[in-house]
Amino acid sequence: MKLSKKQFKQDFEERLTSKFATDLTKAGYQEIYDALASVVKHYYANIWVADNQYKDETGKKQAYYFSIEFLPGKMLKSNLLNLGILNTVREGLNDFGIELDEVAKIEPDMAIGNGGLGRLASCFMDSLASTGLPGNGNGIRYRYGLFKQKIVDGYQVELPDSWLNNGNPWEVRRADKAVEVTFGGEVWLEDDGKGNLIPHYKDQERVLAVPYDTPMVGFENTTVNNMCLWRSEVPEELDPKFQNLDYMRQTSMLSAELYPDDSNYDGRLLRLKQEYFFVSAGLQRILHHYKGTQKKDIRKIGDYIAVHINDTHPALCVPEFMRLLVDEYGVGWNRAWDTTLKVMSYTNHTILSEALEKWPEEMIKQLLPRIYQIIVEIDRRRTAELLPKVGATLVHNTRIIKDGQIHMANLSIIGSHSTNGVAKLHSDLLKDVELHDFYEIYPERFNNKTNGIADRRWIQIANERLSGIIDETIGKSWRHDLDELKLLKNFNNDEKTLEQLQKAKFDDKLRLAAVIKEQKGITVNPDAIFDVQVKRLHAYKRQLLNALHILKLYFDLKDNPELDRIPRVFIFGAKAAPSYHYAKSIIKVINEIANMINNDQTIKDKLKVVFMENYNVSLAEVIIPAANVGEQISLASKEASGTSNMKFMLNGALTIGTLDGANIEIFEAAGDGNNFVFGLTKDEVYEYYRNGNYNARDIYEQNPVVNRILNALIDGTVPNIKSEGREIFDSLTVYNDEYFVLRDFNDYVRAQAELEKLYRDQKAWTQASLMNIANVGRFSSDRTVREYADDIWYIKAKKE
Ligand code: 475
């Protein structure tokens, strides 16, 4: 949009006064932030209205991304950037003596997601709008987002994240669009005399679902999509039977809290209620809108909407859509089923067995009696149809209802036309191993969509310095098309460019060093290699491998203080699920290793270890630009894709990583020699599984380095970790090291040494860094959502 500085200043001052009856001399940061957000909202409101009108009038097909988590972080700068007014506003505020970055800090992170899956959903939201694609989000407006992490005496402590305390200026409550979602009670079918079976209900519990819309503003275009988040409330007119406080409590619980677990299935009733709540509310709204604005034949709805099931949490979309079509809109079963297949698509985000969602049949029957009937019917018809075609074994292996449980992945695959993994390797594993039986039956449904990241947030906002240098070097076209970064390759031997890249990295390291000092009181050397591992804490991601290597470097220096080593700062950021005991023990151990090393005067600043508290999107925006090295060291086959790997690449960090997830595609894109690869391959891991011949104890006993490091965990060398040290020691040496940490240790040490060697040659290092940046284009989520649009959703971008 066009906006003069003068106009902005006037709008802002007026808003400050009209909203808070104050002026610039007296306003506090909260007031300044609220007034600013309100002005920004005013700026995009008209674009939003116009785009909604455009969508309604053209009746274009739209996609709806159903996700139980979103992780957008802060919105202020992102909205300013996308509106094209970031600099105008920054300068306008400067004239008033106000720093935009200080104002931006007031905004709490919107953290209604755990990790990769939620952040990916938010990258998609940004990319859909920015590529002009009509694609909307649908989720839950949790009152409390992901817990805030504190580290106390080395342990993780969880505090509530009450992010809505000061209001949320971006959202719009749409009470007029509220719908009801019902649970429990009894249902029976009666013939209506014309041969139709009509469901009748008794004693249902009713919950009001109120939508809150948050605009997703496209980058310098005219698209504004919607992220709809549902809040649960007590309906105004209630059956007296339900009018009690307990009911009120239960109802508001539905949208009270995000489940803080990542990659894990938790079979609690409340979770199932949440899943049905936002699925039912979202689909009802879509159908109302379709009937209301388009007045088209309901039987044609498959031509106008696509619904995406982001992991299995929204899998109830399949039976709920069937219920709405058949029961509420009178569509015949077969037609409804064909429509459901056409509308639905599904993404799998993990092959970890503990994440595979399944619900006891009895629970679904009690909580969602009509949905249960529909699932039974889907399963029955499918079994009858497929038995003669593919035989009993395949049918049995892929049934939705099996062993008294409803298998949500099976439901998602069977009830949709597309199942995708999130990186090539992951999608291959789905086809070849994890979902092989489904692949045999429905090969045409399987496809890959390698993840991507919203590059606007992860470089234009997070790394203005680097962005500026790139502008100076190759012009600004990359800001609209990340592939244009390829032009940087022409400067791979240009001393000035290389120097500027080094300087930018150094400044970003200074910025992070200040944050580390402030948060942890630790002084780090900006000339050291900043080596970063940030992601959820999980055994398969092997933060432990990193920690063991740090101990090795420490012992090397203790044995030989004169050793010529490039100083290193190891930086961790990770939340552990509150119920994940082992992960929390690893946090404690890393913190105590950090204490020991940081307080050892003989080590000076050759080695520092920092565990940053409360890793979240905003902290990532400071940490990742400052990284020289990104750690992507999961056990091959376990990390479906990873997305921080792409963020590091974009910011010119070199990756040390295994051949897992999207790392493989990153290594290939960046070119040989520009990253550090180590460890078992997926095939080698599977070979061990087949043969059962891995013996971690042998490595402990035979490798003196490993021996010494592991002993340090239990013999008091690392102080204050008595039970946690023992727990980890045992997991490796007694319980045979589930994630092959010891098996990959030597090769990791080798790769780390190579990394250090390259770092000594700053020119060569910076060239490798440049090659990573230059080749990152394909990891833009703009590319990813276009693939979803073309291959899965069949939606078209708006022409500007
Ligand atoms: C993968 N979350 C990453 C990322 O595709 C991948 C599961 C159950 C309950 C709550 N959260 C989850 C995940 O499974 C998850 O975040 N998976 C991650 O999805 C995006 O890049 O490799 O681990």
TrEMBL record:
Catalytic activity from the UniProt record: [(1->4)-alpha-D-glucosyl](n) + phosphate = [(1->4)-alpha-D-glucosyl](n-1) + alpha-D-glucose 1-phosphate
Pfam families hit by this protein: Phosphorylase (PF00343)
Coiled coil (UniProt feature): none
Family of this protein: Belongs to the glycogen phosphorylase family.
Modified residues (N6-(pyridoxal phosphate)lysine): K647
Positions of transmembrane segments: none
Keyword list, A-Z: Allosteric enzyme, Carbohydrate metabolism, Glycosyltransferase, Pyridoxal phosphate, Transferase
Protein name: Alpha-1,4 glucan phosphorylase
GO molecular-function term, one example from the UniProt record: glycogen phosphorylase activity
Annotated function: Allosteric enzyme that catalyzes the rate-limiting step in glycogen catabolism, the phosphorolytic cleavage of glycogen to produce glucose-1-phosphate, and plays a central role in maintaining cellular and organismal glucose homeostasis. Phosphorylase is an important allosteric enzyme in carbohydrate metabolism. Enzymes from different sources differ in their regulatory mechanisms and in their natural substrates. However, all known phosphorylases share catalytic and structural properties.
Cofactor: pyridoxal 5'-phosphate
EC number(s) from the headed UniProt entry: 2.4.1.1
GO biological process, one term: glycogen catabolic process
Enzyme class, broadest EC rank: transferase
InterPro entries from the UniProt entry: Glycg_phsphrylas (IPR011833), Glyco_trans_35 (IPR000811), Pyridoxal_P_attach_site (IPR035090)
Gene Ontology CC: one annotated term: cytoplasm
